Amino acid sequence: MKSSLDKDTVTSVNLYFQDESRFGQTFIVKSEEIKWELINETKKIGKYNCYKAKYKEIIAWYAPEIPLQFGPVGFGGLPGLIIHLEYGGFVDFSVKSLDLNLKKDIVIKNLRKEN
To answer: What is the pLDDT of residues 9-63, one digit of tens each?
Structure first.
């Protein structure tokens, strides 16, 4: 998904992988469509300049300098990695540490069956 900081909103539908070990299978799960409202507010979190986005009672602080559209608990789709997420005013998720130097290749299997 492409995103732009020039827009007031960003819409995303996240696909994520869920391992159901009791069935011994891996499933693709489609989450709720998220229409993020991009707020013109910034703050420094660690060494990253983060921007604010809001969806319902969820506030996300994302770092565009890390161009990954991921975040905790299935949230993502913003034009940068979510560094901090506030959910309903009572649950916070924050990045504790970040190592962007991958030492090995990551292989992702295609889980969709071709007809």
So the answer is: 666 655 544 545 456 666 666 666 789 999 999 999 999 999 999 999 999 999 9
DSSP label of 75: -
CA pair distance 70, 52, nearest whole angstrom: 15
Instruction: Output the DSSP codes for 28-41.
Output: EEE---EEEEEEEE
DSSP-assigned states of every residue in 14-73: -EEEEEETTTTEEEEEE---EEEEEEEEEEEETTEEEEEEEETTEEEEEETTS-----GG
The span from the CA of 101 to the CA of 14, in Å, is 25
CA distance 4 to 2: 7
33 neighbors 55 (Cβ within 8 angstroms):
no
Say how far apart CA 42 and CA 28 lie, in whole Å.
34
pTM (predicted TM-score): 0.67
The whole-angstrom distance between residue 5's C-alpha and the CA centroid of its chain comes to 16
